[in-house]
Design a protein that fits this description.
Blueprint lengths: L17 H29 L1 H26 L4 H51 L6 H17 L1 H45 L3 H42 L5 H11 L5 H18 L1 H31 L3 H37 L22 H29 L7 H7 L11 H4 L1
Helix pairs in contact: 2-3, 2-5, 2-6, 3-5, 3-7, 3-8, 6-7, 6-8, 6-9, 6-10, 6-11, 7-8, 8-9, 9-10
């Protein structure tokens, strides 16, 4: 009897467990996706001077679209309605900034004097309080602070140059925002039709309907966030005015702008209000200001955010907080500002593409968003897709009706024969023509 022979280990990969092969397949795909996302984020960061104004223009577009539609329904030409809406927005923003700026200039001198008095009180407390610091010790600390400020003159000059560049970027971004907002409001449907036309024909319909729902979500978020920010600003501004804290109006404007960063922005701006109250009016007023900020934050966190924002974007507070954290980590303050609207829009779009429609009342339109003004080739292509889709649906419905009636099994060929059209290869044969 011969000795048993051992087979060499298999080298065709069959010895690798299926779980390991699946994990390896998923791993390299995830690595490719991560690399693509990294390249995309890098491109966006390099083009942020253009990308950020376009994103702001999209938010302004969904905000002003109802007002433009209202003016058009009143008989105003669309171009005039768009121009009037933008002009009103610019006047409103400029008026608020001017009013806040005047209040800052008016109250800054008083606040500076109160801050100087606060420093004197702090110096006296350090000398006469429990620390028992000598005048020479305090003077030494003051000299060190002044020396550090004097030694950092070059950094201050560099910071000033960076600030000048930032101002130029803000001015250019504002012009880009106004320009894009005007044309988004005027020809947004044409632009969207062109974007959809770049996609394969089979995916145009789904992308178009998903995009409609994404725009609705974006508009709901923008309007709701303005309402939440207004409530925060009104509550903290009124509290500061009642407590006779200086710069109450600028603080309210700051809270309004900061509230567009959910959860984090209102906390930071509220802390600034408490600090101003402490410097100007002392610890007692600062304590009452803290109470006002906490009450406003509780109102936002337990009433406004769950009911209004939750209904508008359907995102859990944990998802909102993680989105803000991820956005601020990737793109700083800009990422924190746009993290929630991007997450909410993507959530709506992905749910629709996977069969869950958050807005069934929207239905479907004819996928021809522009009539008479779009590109003729694109319009014809979109119309052909819509016509082919309707014909296919009608044919499938007729097949289903015949199957339910227990008639002869119906196929696409038999339906086509009843319609008087050639239904298959046999119809094209010489015998069938005879």
């Amino acid at each position: 009897m011969s000795a048993p022979t051992t087979r060499p280990p298999a080298t065709d990969g069959t010895s690798v467990p299926p779980s390991v092969r699946n994990a390896a397949a998923w791993s390299w795909r995830l690595l490719l996706i991560g690399a693509a996302l990294a390249v995309l984020l890098w491109l966006l960061s390099e083009l942020k001077v253009v990308v950020v104004p376009i994103a702001v223009a999209l938010l302004l577009t969904v905000l002003l679209t109802p007002f433009v539609g209202w003016l058009v329904r009143r008989g105003l030409p669309r171009g005039a309605a768009v121009g009037l809406s933008l002009a009103g927005l610019v006047v409103l923003v400029a008026g608020l900034l001017t009013l806040a700026g005047r209040s800052i200039v008016k109250g800054f001198g008083e606040l500076w004097d109160q801050a100087a008095q606060g420093v004197d009180k702090l110096t006296t407390w350090l000398a006469e309080g429990p620390l028992q610091l000598t005048t020479s010790d305090i003077s030494g600390w003051v000299d060190r602070i002044q020396g550090s400020l004097s030694g950092g003159s070059s950094e201050l000059v560099t910071g000033a140059l960076h600030a000048t560049t930032t101002v130029a970027h803000v001015a250019a971004g504002s012009l880009i925002t106004l320009f894009c907002t005007f044309f988004f409001l005027l020809d947004g449907r044409t632009i969207w039709a062109w974007v959809v036309g770049l996609l394969p024909r089979g995916s145009r319909e789904h992308v178009h309907q998903a995009g409609r729902r994404g725009v609705v979500t974006l508009g709901a978020y923008t309007r709701t966030q303005i309402l939440v920010a207004g409530v925060d600003a009104l509550g903290i501004g009124l509290g500061a005015a009642i407590l006779q804290v200086p710069l109450a109006l600028p603080l309210a404007v700051l809270v309004f702008l900061g509230s567009f960063i959910p959860i984090v922005g209102a906390v930071v701006t509220g802390s600034i209000a408490i600090l101003v109250a402490l410097v100007s009016n002392g610890p007692a007023t600062a304590l009452w200001m803290l109470v006002v900020v906490i009450v406003v934050q509780q109102l936002e966190g337990h009433v406004l955010q769950p009911f209004l924002m939750g209904h508008a974007v359907s995102l859990h507070p944990v998802a909102v907080l993680l989105s803000v954290a991820a956005g601020s980590f990737v793109a700083g303050i800009v990422g924190a500002l746009f993290a929630v609207p991007i997450a909410a829009t993507l959530n709506t779009v992905m749910l629709y593409l996977h069969g869950h429609d958050k807005f069934p009342q929207l239905g479907t339109d004819d996928h021809v968003p522009v009539r008479g003004r779009g590109h003729p080739v694109l319009d014809r292509a979109i119309a052909q897709v819509a016509e082919a889709t309707s014909e296919r649906v009608a044919t499938e419905a007729e097949i289903a009706e015949r199957a339910e009636a227990d008639e002869q099994p119906a196929t696409v060929d038999t339906v086509a024969e009843d319609a008087g059209e050639p239904g298959g290869p046999d119809d094209a044969s010489p015998t069938s023509r005879r």
